[in-house]
Amino acid sequence: VLALLRAHANPSHPFKLEGVPSQLTVSERRIFMSELASYAQDGSLAEVFGSGTAAIITSVERIGYKGDDVRVPVEGSETTGFGAVAGALYEALQAIQYGDDAFENWSVLV
Q1: Which DSSP letter does residue 70 get?
Q2: Cα separation of 101 and 5, whole Å?
């Protein structure tokens, strides 16, 4: 997932995620719930999702924190269940897995 996002954010890389702004900053770091709650409260939290082998990509709508729910905006969730970035990642990963698209050396024809 990080490799796909980094490729998308790199102006010289041909891979792009449909519907995701190219001015994307990709970082991998620890984030604390107090920080996430603050972003949700001030309106700067855009999306939260998780990734893994079995789930591929899953959006997060809310997170329980200190007896309350931190609500996460999920634009378009009524139709897809995903925000813009998670939805684009899901579609890209599915296309790579099914051999419809290639990404670097992720797939090998056997």
Answers
A1: E
A2: 16
